[in-house]
Amino acid sequence: MSTRSGTTWVTGTTGPLHNGIGDMYVTIGADQRGSGRPSFTRFADDQLAWLRRVLVAPPGMGKARSELADTGTVILDGVPGSGRTCAARVLLREHHKDMGAFRELLPDEEGELPLADPELVGAGDRLLLDLSAADTVRWAASRADLSALRKAVHEKHAHLVIVMPHGGTLESDLQQYRVEILQPCRAWVLRRHLRMHGVPTEQYLRPDPTVTEFLYEQRPLREIADFADLVRRAREAAASGEEFTQWCATARKAQADRREEVATLVATLRDSSQRALLISVAMLHGAHADVVHRAAQLLLRTVGSPPDDLPLLQRKDLAERLGEISAGAGPDGHVRFRDLDYDSTIRTHFWDHMPDLRQHLGTWTARIVALSGPSITQELRDGLVAKLAGEYLRTGRAEGLASLAEDWGSTATSRAGLEAAVQALTCGLGDPAHARTFRGWIYQWCANKQLKGEFARVLVQVCADVIAADHPDQAMLRLYYLARRDDGTADAMQALSDMVQSSHRLRRRLLHRLARCEPSQADLGIFLRVGVAEALTDPYDNGRALAEEESVQSSVITCWRAVLNKLPRPTWQPYTERWLHASVDAGDKGGLLLDLLVGAADRCEGRRGAAFAALYASARDAERTAPGGSSRAALTTDLLFQKICSAQGLSRPITPPQAASPRGTVL
């Protein structure tokens, strides 16, 4: 975990790819547009770097590595639980370059291009196509497009790893790319995870009966990662003098089914105040005793329980009450159960066996999040929301979690409330079984729903910093819809601009979307922000610039024509001046930038003369603000004038055109 510029970022084992059974915290504030915030590509790379550190190379990894290096494509096969998906991500991480980004392809989701579309692949991209769970129909449809996809990957110097469904059909021309991944030695996998968790080598190399029993069964690698994380947590909570054998025994006990034990405990606690305390400790495990006490009292008020009528000094103190529920406060004042992961079993019990309590827990969580005090930290708030979200997701109630996040974001009166909504959606997006559903709901919110309160800001943050990590195309589309709303936030426009700033491919896609039909006034506002000349002339890949691509030229001309036709000159004048200033410093591409402006004005049917005159007037105004001095800018104005004359079919320059309006305010 690292903290920069007031922003908490959690990476490594506790990132969205965490394989343990402990809590996962992803802290994303409601206002983090500072320069210290990592880009979505960096965020994804941090996750991949952790996977690379913990991976034990499985049999077949070397062959897959060579195939990917030689051809740019490899198709991984293997039984479920062999680590094939993890291996795929690590293979792509090994090809990290300054250009391109890691992306997971989801061709059948809203906002994703088809696999055969050449615009799907950016220069140097690292692409994962995980079809390990695909049915026969989806696998067949994907195979039909692989030839076009591999061609685009080769042309863009990108890398593609496909995880195929085990036992799926593969054509003869694709067999050469297939590599089978076998599960590595389970003991080695456990040791690697323990070493990465900081467990001393001399501890885990000793024979241990608990470990031997655990590894005897054929287990998927994720369960081994879970066990290693439990050992880590057992070590952190262990008393002085305990060693590896005790840590493993504690971890194994935490994996046991303790539901009957918890049910018996709850049955003995007939008093509502004790049950409220039990729930509060389970939901706020590790919090300070003062927080747990406040939370228990707040839960009683939330569910409408009557207050305790006993005189204050006749009531049981907190230490006695905690002892009755197998919990206690340590020397630091923080409350924990005596047994590892006991809190998880208690949460499960109350959620499953007291369904009428669920709605109250949502209300209670929102009230806890809104509390302030020295012990009410952001980590505590995020952990509480993550635990509540975990129960919704565990029991298949994703829609309930989404509704709760929408309600929190729509009614929040503080930053903490907005952060809780972000955290709830982040948990949904990080759950493999429900991520696709949450992406779909977020699309509907961004594109079609009327948003209340500050919920739009929540969606901006989730798109820019969560969805964009693996699915930048989907994030860009959702931000586009948010930015073009009548009540669109400045945050959405800024986030959209930041995304395309980091990717020529995304900027190209956005320009094509803006120009695919007659741009609206909102679209034109977006175009003026993202269609900046400096980005269009910035070379990428093999030294080529976006402005040199015919499809981009067509999109830019379409958008500039609509700007000149629909918007008043004071609106577009600053952007035109920046465009003209950029053309001064663009070298041989400067003339191309002017051609795009002139081409746009030339297509202003019935208003060509007025558009040409306005462009020329803008160029004269731009001379006064040119960074390099007016003399160089004047040469650009002269070149623009010559191009205007040429567009009008005039063989030699005539008197410069005059603006149609003496005030120069309307075209």
TrEMBL record:
Domain of life here?
Bacteria
Task: Supply the name of the protein.
Answer: ATP-binding protein
Organism lineage string: Bacteria, Bacillati, Actinomycetota, Actinomycetes, Kitasatosporales
